[in-house]
Amino acid sequence: MASFIPRASKRLRLGAPSSQWICNDCRRTFASSIQSRQQQQPASSQRVGQDEKTTHFGYQTVAEDLKAGRVRDVFSSVASNYDTMNDLMSLGIHRLWKDHFVRSLNPGIPPSSRTHHPDQGMKILDIAGGTGDIAFRHLDHSSTINADHHTSVIVSDINPDMLAEGRKRFAASPYHATGRVSFLEANAEELGAVESGSIDLYTVAFGIRNFTHKQNALEEAFRVLKPGGVFACLEFTPQLSNPLLNAVYKRWSFGAIPLIGQIVAADRDSYQYLVESIERFPSQQKFAGMIRKAGFLIPGQDPKDEVVRSGWEDLTMGIAAIHKGVKPA
Ligand SMILES: C[S@@+](CC[C@H](N)C(=O)[O-])C[C@H]1O[C@@H](n2cnc3c(N)ncnc32)[C@H](O)[C@@H]1O
């Protein structure tokens, strides 16, 4: 693990994919027909009592204790189409982001670092792991790049339907019955089933924006990690820094994604929520502050270096970003 941390922080320097993934035809089609929902003010569509704590569910305001259930319903509804929809909505780019995310973490322990313990592997917790996209990549990377066949992943998710899809995929994979993957149904804000200081690497991809209490989840991440362990998050950002590109991108996401959801999965509302939830996620700067507040050190933060100055890495014009934190040793 000791050799893993500096490598991970160095690799924050890797250039982000620069794919221009909004085609001209799509722009024309959607720009002319779509009234951007993003400019509408959030509507309070769920009645809440006066003393109840509220939070957002996309653009709606809901009682805090109802949000996890509403999010669960969304993902139960999309579970069986989730992988296909991901490809359609991102034109396949989510695969490049996930590849880059996992490569930058270099999961697994290379033979040169396990001379005294040849069977040693990392213990990885993939939170909001859904259908297992990130877990597969962790295991593939650790086996093929680091020749480590011992590193294991716990795929954890609040939603049993998403986990069921993940189980199905792993059952048909070479990792089936290797003991390298296990599943845990749990809310990321209360990981009571995971022992404190037991995890080397905690990852969460496109999950944290759905959590009700994101700071609690970060504190749980800190608790379960070993000293020197790494927290890594891949998530959409609420806004692109270039206002013109931002406007084009928002037209695409608010116009196309719910429409694709309607056509392919007969479920416009769930996909409407998914794009609205992106708008509600904190900016990169604010989220980095939350990671720091949970106790993490942010590797690679260097005021003199443009690429890593901020402590996070923007991907594809800043549509998504990677954040990392290290639990102090
Ligand atoms: C957009 S999917 C991402 C799945 C996977 N990580 C990926 O990148 O393909 C978001 C996942 O977050 C899960 N999720 C939402 N709220 C959660 C919570 N409070 N605790 C754990 N998982 C949660 C959902 O059930 C869903 O599987």
Automatic annotation (TrEMBL):
Named in its record, the pathway it takes part in is: Cofactor biosynthesis; ubiquinone biosynthesis
Q: What residues bind S-adenosyl-L-methionine, as annotated? A: 131, 157, 187-188
Catalysed reactions, semicolon-separated: a 2-methoxy-6-(all-trans-polyprenyl)benzene-1,4-diol + S-adenosyl-L-methionine = a 5-methoxy-2-methyl-3-(all-trans-polyprenyl)benzene-1,4-diol + S-adenosyl-L-homocysteine + H(+)
Q: Where is this region: Disordered?
A: 33-52
EC number(s) per UniProt?
A: 2.1.1.201
Record bears the keyword Mitochondrion: yes
Topology of the protein relative to the lipid bilayer? Peripheral membrane protein
State the compartments where it is located: Mitochondrion inner membrane
The family database entries (PROSITE patterns) matched by this protein are listed as: SAM_MT_UBIE, UBIE_1, UBIE_2
Q: Where is the composition biased (Low complexity)?
A: 33-46
Location (main, coarse): mitochondrion
Supply one GO BP term: methylation
Statement: the UniProt record of this protein carries the keyword Heme: no
What InterPro entries is this protein classified in? SAM-dependent_MTases_sf (IPR029063), UbiE/COQ5_MeTrFase (IPR004033), UbiE/COQ5_MeTrFase_CS (IPR023576)
HAMAP family xref list: MenG_UbiE_methyltr (MF_01813)
What is this protein's record name?
A: 2-methoxy-6-polyprenyl-1,4-benzoquinol methylase, mitochondrial
Q: Which organism is it from?
A: Hortaea werneckii EXF-2000
